[in-house]
Each structure stands twice: as C-alpha cells, then as structure tokens.
Design brief:
mainly alpha
C-alpha cells in the first residue's frame, strides 16, 4: 500500500513515471537530433509519431506480434521521412512549412486509417522487472522497465559516440554546418539530409509504437499530447547532444509524472495543475534558450532557426 512508505511514494512514482513517459521523448528527440544535425528542422514528427502509433497497433492486432508492430511503425516513419526529405530538396521550399503540412497529414491519415482499430486489443511490448529484489509494490512498479527504454538509452550512447568518432558522424556534422564545405569535400548535402530525415522519422515512429503498445497501451485519437513538437524544444535544450536528449527526456518524463505521483499519495486538490508541467517546462526552455541575444551553442550552422 502507498501508506506503507508515506511520502517516499512521490519520488518513486516520479521515477517510474519518468521512465514510462520519457521513452517516446527519447526516440523522437534522437530522431530530431539526427535531422537537425544535418541542417534541417522537421516539425512533422508529431504526425509521424501518431501515424507510427496507429501502424504499430494495427500491425500488432493483425499479426499478434508487438515487435512486428514496432518494425511496421519504423517502416512507416522511414517513408514519411523520405517523402519529407525529398520535398525539402527543391529550391525555395521552407522546411518549417513542409513540416507542419506533414504533421497535419500524418495525424489526419492516422485518424482515418485507425478508426477500425480503436476497439480491438493488441499484445503489449515486454518489460523487464528490475525491481524483483524488493517486496514493496511501489518499487517493483517504478522499476518495471520496458525494453524500448533500454534500447533508447543504448541508442543515445551509440549516437553520441558515432557523431564524434565515425566518418558518417563527420559527414553529418559537415553537412549541417556548411553546405558549401560539404560540396567542396565531394558530398551531396541533399542526399545526406534525406537519409538523416528518413532515419529521424523511423525513430520518431518507434516512439509512437511505444505509446500504443505499452504506455498507455492502446490506440485512440488522443494518444499523443504534443510529444513530437515538445521534442524540438528538448533537442534545443540538449544542445543537439544525444546523451543530453536522453537526460532531458527523463526530465520531461518526470515533469509529466508529477501530477499522477501526487495523486497516488492522496493529494486530492490542485494536483491536476501539475499535469501542465511538461508544457510549462517546454515554454520555459524556449524562452531561456531562444532569446534574441543568446547564441545557440552547438547549433548546426545550416539550421533554419539559427539564421
């Protein structure tokens, strides 16, 4: 019972909530980091996230396999990213406008195709009970970690290393900092950005698969609360660093878990105000990091928001 551990239930609930809520943020922010490091901003990842959630759930319902659902979501996100990257290669095409259009398209298409899958039940993604050593239910619940969270953490570590130590990472950074320098090295900036946008879309869709196949674990038209858009602020806050994205995603996840944590220990008044904490945090980050007189340290030189 919650009363057995008193106020310790709050940090435990926040910890468990941070792990659960942060996972979509991790994948979307890592995808957006790759895209922005190439010099392109993609505001369409909210649509990719929602469409990935629908695709994963529908595939899991029809095949009986949650992992096939994740793969299908990644494939759908890859297609969205390729389409976005292909359109943005044309002259005088605005990345931000195309991103907004893709967001609306992805959400609308997901709602249209997903109506038949609102009622059926799909299998869940597995989790690892890292709290097996404790007899306290709150500890067990907080440390019941989904496999995608662990994959996201390892992916963040790998991308951080790869951006610094591999040729692919060097190519991405050069293209993101200067198209002219990239062309002088014999690189094709449009091709690099196409690949980065496609991979970014695939990762964002995996974040959507987590939403529908684990937490909250169902498909409906309100499954996302703007995680795709908030991830853009998260990437800026993390200074385009994959490990920073992982840490910032946990911060956002903890903020999102604050309201339910207070409710779990018997706070019955005012706790609902804390449900707005992620949005307030997003606004504060944007104000703090994007003021006209403040330079965005670590921002790719070709990125639209830095010009």
């Amino acid at each position: 019972m919650e009363s057995d551990i008193g106020l310790w239930g709050v940090p435990l609930a926040i910890l468990g909530g941070a792990i659960r809520v942060s996972t979509p943020f991790i994948f979307v922010s890592l995808g957006e980091t790759l895209t922005e490091r190439s010099g392109r901003i993609n505001l369409g990842l909210e649509g990719t996230l929602v469409f990935g959630a629908m695709t994963a759930y529908a595939t899991a319902v029809m095949t009986g396999s949650a992992w096939l659902g994740v793969l299908a979501a990644a494939a759908s996100g890859l297609c969205f990213g390729v389409f976005h990257g292909w359109i943005c290669k044309f002259p005088r095409v605005n990345d931000i406008a195309i991103g907004i259009a893709m967001m609306l398209f992805g959400i609308g298409l997901a709602f249209y195709l997903g109506k038949a899958f609102i009622q059926p039940s799909a299998p869940d993604l597995p989790s690892i009970p890292l709290g097996f050593w404790s007899d306290i239910p709150q500890v067990q619940a907080a440390l019941d970690v989904n496999v995608l969270f662990i994959i996201g953490g390892l992916l963040a570590l790998f991308l951080w290393w790869a951006l610094k130590n591999t040729r692919a990472g060097l190519v991405l950074r050069v293209v993101g900092d200067s198209s002219d320098a990239a062309r002088a090295m014999g690189l094709n900036p449009n091709a690099v950005r196409l690949v980065a946008t496609a991979v970014g879309g695939a990762l964002a869709a995996i974040g959507g698969a987590y939403l529908s196949l684990y937490y909250p674990g169902s498909w409906n038209e309100r499954i996302s609360s703007g995680q795709g858009l908030m991830a853009v602020a998260l990437v800026i806050f993390a200074r385009w660093n994959p490990l920073g994205c992982f840490a910032a995603a946990l911060l956002f996840g903890g903020a999102g878990a604050l309201g339910p944590a207070l409710q779990s220990v018997g706070v019955t008044q005012g706790y609902y105000l804390f449900y707005a904490a992620p949005y307030v945090l997003t606004l504060a980050i944007m104000i703090a990091t994007c003021s006209p007189g403040r330079r965005l340290a670590g921002a790719p030189g070709e990125l639209s928001i830095t010009k």
